[in-house]
Amino acid sequence: MIIENGMVFGVGGKFHKTSLYSVGGKVVKGEDAPGTVCRTASRILDAAGFYVIPGLVDVHAHGAVGHDFCDGDMEGLRKIAEYEYRSGVTSFCPTSMTLPEARLAEIYAAVPMLLREMESVGGGERVSKEKAAEAVNFSRIVGIHMEGPFLATKKCGAQNPKDIVPADYDMFCRLNEAGGGLLKIVTVAPEQARNLEFIRRVSGEVNVSLGHSTAGFEEAEAGFAAGANHVTHLFNAMNPYHHRNPGIIGAATGQKDVFVELISDGMHVHPAAVRDVFRLFGDGRVVLISDSTASCGMPDGEYVLGGQAVLKDGRKVTLAASGGMKRLGVAGLPDVPNGKAVPGGGKLSGMAEAPNPSDEVIAGSASNLYECMCCAVSFGVPLESAVKAATVNPARSIGLEGQIGSFVPGAWADCLLMDETLRLRAVISNEHVTWLS
Predict the structure, then answer these.
(1) Do residues 270 and 369 share a domain?
(2) Mind telling me the catalytic residues?
(3) What is the mean pLDDT of residues 351-378?
(4) Exposed (0-12), middle (13-18) or buried (19+): which is 31, by Cβ within 10 Å?
């Protein structure tokens, strides 16, 4: 396939008017593209007037369209993957919340089951030509992000504090096995008892991200020295940057190989702070994420995140206050304002104590990664930097550089067409074009 005349996001992080070639769904150099394969009318797409960027990679997404990864429902995970694809996210890591080990094992088991059903292998690589047209409408699952339970209760945020436990290597191994070896990121609070030793032991097997933590500067530095290479949603669920104790944020600035997640949805981080992060860390270390929940792509109302009740109001999602929890109750299938039952079904088990209504706790986001990328641009981040932070960087952060998130030869030729207003117009994968209205 040839995509011609578009402004293509090149390997050097700049846009150039050029052509993008692919064979068998993977990027090739122009001179390596067989004429008999590419030079037919049905295999040429005129992208004049469009930006052509790699499909986005979201390494931190809990759910969407009424479904939560922690529902442990394979069909729900399929619906999430379908929504992500149509939102321009062609690869993602479903992200879990803090829950008991037995429940997490059930949740993780849904991932390899779905991949097998889609005739996929190793991180989502599709191999069945016969089912390519069917499978192409879903975002590629490239790993699992284990956000909890190895966290700090004082910075649990929307995580359930009663299920937080000290880091346990054997538990991690059991869960990784349940998930088919797909764990790519584990979030850890380095200052908690046993957690630093866990980081030392596990960092050669998985990317360790510091987050949901009360760590001061020295504790954070110790975490990075032990092998952590990632920060979970910078600013959120951690101590703020202080001139006498800059904490995780300050410690991360001096670590050239550490990636920092950033939620640029306009709710979690002020636009000025979003700009400052790109200046401070450079556009090669920032990883834009959505932190999306079941409420993403849904009307305002009441939903569930990892077993806890949350309220969506516009683009804002918060843990339900006492009044909201009374409306929901703790059993059955309660009604919500839009007339649908709470997604995820049945009991809302193990809810944390309701926060003070005057002190709202943000509980993930109602935005997808494409929206977050566009928000970053609207905040003043250069388009090239925002695209890099939503494609190249997240792929690098989970060890999949050269496979997804860029147009290097050999990578999956997942790409998006967007117009000059940054409106998403088409998603392309496996040389199949899905035009969007």
Answers:
(1) yes
(2) 291
(3) 78
(4) exposed
